[in-house]
Each structure stands twice: as structure tokens, then as C-alpha cells.
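Progress narrative, work stream C.
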Amino acid sequence: MATDGPAPGGRAWTRGEMIIVFAGTLLVVDLVFAPWHRFAIDVDLEQFGIALPSFRMDRRGIQNPQAFFGIASAVLAALMVVHIVAAKFSSSVPRAEQLHLVGGAVVLGLVVAKLLANNDFLGMGAWAGICLAAALAYGGFLLSQQTSAGTGRRVPTP
């Protein structure tokens, strides 16, 4: 079923809206907190009586390398989530489903560009970011399919 119950504003949450809110929020958290690039040098030579310092550097998705791609995708994903929530709870906010189709594709493109520009030493956050950006793009696609072409009216889902 495409809905999960009515929102306080009276409209039910569609599957596309739920995916955008969930994946967009997690993508922003992933870009800000999870390590996307992990550089580590751990040399254990203490058994030979040599003590060398270890080196470790974690870079988040909004940090270099290619910080612009990470920051732009985090801002766009956050805006998509804010718009869905605002449109759900306020009737004065226009529902712009086609913008989410384009926005999801742009976020996915930005995340892929960030990874293709420097794919050395990728951390877990990078792989999770790809999956979350793809889910966000899919949510935008589902949301765009729920309106009739050009009219902005909702199409009933079976």
C-alpha cells in the first residue's frame, strides 16, 4: 500500500514522500558525520623495539577532497526533506513533485561525482552515501509518478 496513515494536516504519507524524508535525512547525517575517506598507517614494530607513531585521518563527506560536491548534496537533500515536510503540514506550501525528481537525480549525480573524483581510501560512509542518494532519487521518481502529467493532480495508486 502506498500510504502509511494520515498526517496531522489530513493528507496521508505516500511511499515517495516517506523514502525522500527517510533517505534524505540519513544522507545528510552520513555526509556530516560518517567517514567517507579513511587514511591510516599503523605500523607495529614494537616487537623489534622500535616505536613509530601511527597516523589516522578520517574525512567526512562535506570535507575535502571535493568538499563542494558533499556540501551541495547535503544542502539539496536537506531542502528536499524540508519541502516535503512543509508541504505535508501546511497547505500554503506548493507541492512540487517534479522538482523532487530533478533534485534526487542531481543529488545522486553530485555524490557519484564526489566519489569518481577521488576514489582512494573510501570509508563506509561513501558506500552508504551512494545507496542513500540512489534511494533519494528513487523517492523523487516515485513522487513524480504519483501526479498526472502537467496537471499537478494526484493520480490514485492501486
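Work stream C, second folded protein:
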Amino acid sequence: MLDVARMRAKGVLGVILPKDRDPRFVTIRRGGTLTDSDHQLLALWAASCAEHVLDLFESAQPADPRPRQAIEQARVWARGEIAMTQARTAAGHANAAIPLFGYLSYIGSLLFPLVGLQTLTM
């Protein structure tokens, strides 16, 4: 079995982000150039990409609603009906639903546009 705690302690499972983030993916209020309207379009794009492979995930994990919920929360956020923190939390839960290894990790990599949005645009 994988010892995630030990791997994190060694820095193996750390967040893979450059020290200097691309300002196009950082919101204006955090010093970047990403406007609210472009941020919303990016969220809708990510939701659409993730939705294309959602049936693959759900066929293997039919009882796990987290990726579907995250897709819906991204769309609800883009409409201005919930706070970003709620959508980001849903994306984090969807990320936790993706196993680290095996067949589902490939599907998880296809869901990255949605779950990765939480880190790209904060």
C-alpha cells in the first residue's frame, strides 16, 4: 500500500506549481491579470472538459458524486450564485475522489481541468 504521509513528508506529493505563477491565471485582486469574466469562462471551460470524461469515472465509481458535484458547482459559481470558496471546496473534494494509481488515475488526469482550476486561478 502507498504511504502517502511519508511521501508528503519527503515532498513527493507536494503541489506542483512554479514559484512564479503566470499572471494570466491569477485573478486581478491577487495581483494577476485574470478578469472576473475570463475567470468565469475558464471555469465553464474546465467544467465542460471534465464532463466529457465524467461517464468513465462514474462507470467505475457509480456511488461517488464528488466530480459531478464539482462540475455543477463550477457552473453555479460562474453564474454568480455561490462564492468561489464553495466551488473551490467542491473541486478539492473531486480531486480527493481521484485515485493516485491505476486505471482511474488516467480518468483523473482527464478531470484535471476542473480540479486543477482550484489551484490555477486562486
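The chain has seven helices and no strands. No further action is required on this item.
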